[in-house]
Automatic annotation (TrEMBL):
<dbReference type="InterPro" id="IPR017452">
    <property type="entry name" value="GPCR_Rhodpsn_7TM"/>
</dbReference>
<keyword id="KW-1133">Transmembrane helix</keyword>
<dbReference type="Pfam" id="PF00001">
    <property type="entry name" value="7tm_1"/>
</dbReference>
<feature type="transmembrane region" description="Helical">
    <location>
        <begin position="142"/>
        <end position="161"/>
    </location>
</feature>
<dbReference type="GO" id="GO:0005886">
    <property type="term" value="C:plasma membrane"/>
</dbReference>
<keyword id="KW-0472">Membrane</keyword>
<feature type="transmembrane region" description="Helical">
    <location>
        <begin position="63"/>
        <end position="80"/>
    </location>
</feature>
<keyword id="KW-1003">Cell membrane</keyword>
<keyword id="KW-0812">Transmembrane</keyword>
<feature type="transmembrane region" description="Helical">
    <location>
        <begin position="27"/>
        <end position="51"/>
    </location>
</feature>
<feature type="transmembrane region" description="Helical">
    <location>
        <begin position="248"/>
        <end position="265"/>
    </location>
</feature>
<feature type="domain" description="G-protein coupled receptors family 1 profile">
    <location>
        <begin position="43"/>
        <end position="296"/>
    </location>
</feature>
<feature type="transmembrane region" description="Helical">
    <location>
        <begin position="100"/>
        <end position="121"/>
    </location>
</feature>
<comment type="similarity">
    <text>Belongs to the G-protein coupled receptor 1 family.</text>
</comment>
<dbReference type="GO" id="GO:0001594">
    <property type="term" value="F:trace-amine receptor activity"/>
</dbReference>
<protein>
    <submittedName>
        <fullName>Trace amine-associated receptor 13c-like</fullName>
    </submittedName>
</protein>
<keyword id="KW-0297">G-protein coupled receptor</keyword>
Amino acid sequence: MESVDQLCFPKLNASCRKPTLHWTNAVLMNIVLSSVSLITAVLNLLVIISVSHFRQLYTPTNILLLSLAVSDFLVGFLLMPGEIYLRTGCWFLGDNVCSLYNHVSFIITSASVGDMVLISIDRYVAICDPLHYPTRVTVTKAKLCVFLCWLCSVFYSSVILHDDPRHPDEHNSCYGECVLVVSYLAGVADLLFTFIVPISVIVVLYLRVFVVAVSQARARRSHVTAVTLQLSVTLTTKKSELKAARTLGVLIVVFLMCFCPYYSVSLAADESLSSSLASFAVYLFYFNSCLNPVIYALFYPWFRRAVKLIVTLQILQPGSCEANIL
């Protein structure tokens, strides 16, 4: 017979058991995961403030990065604490909050994948069709694409989880549990639309960008004759676009490294293997949200300058939004 102290709800016989972790391991895990969650939220909040405040950063590419930073911030602010709550304790917030948490996690995940696809398309047009990039990709169009991305994510979540709000506790084996089980068709659709298709699009576009970037680099090295001022400006512009492409390429490679295990575990046929690696895969996917602003700090001087102005509270001064940080 189970001890009452081991139950999430001691007065209910159908209550779930509390996780059997040694207190030192539980404390250490909570400290590490909570610290990563806080760092993720703070770093992405700095990205959001930077792009939103400084007018020089109002570019189509940065609008897409802003959307990605919003989803990453929500991962650190909502999903990581929720995951810590799920993995290291009992669920005391009720079935309706559990259903809401599952919907929000689907929306944020889908939006992150959509942002990565939009970033790939942006770099593809910038590198492969630079002459038409200023007219084809504008701030207004970027904002519209971001809006549609989040709107589609909300619609997608409502379709995939359409049964969950009506029967939020249908798959719970005991009280104090928060699980999500989707149908076979919904699982196939999720695999197709949030993994296979986006990853294929991202890889194909960036392979094309890589080929064009290499050919342009070779062309610059072989360019030994005198050039006009207009051509020099064009080459300089292409060089800056290539640098941005490399930076965002690193961003996407890191995303794929963190994202692929998330779905690879779900595809594993061995149930014990899936359960043993599920937590690691989820944490790795969420940890990508912490790595993105670190990549910005390493490769974008404007981000470092913006953070300095934010931390020193210089953004509170009149006219600080017009500061030159590029």
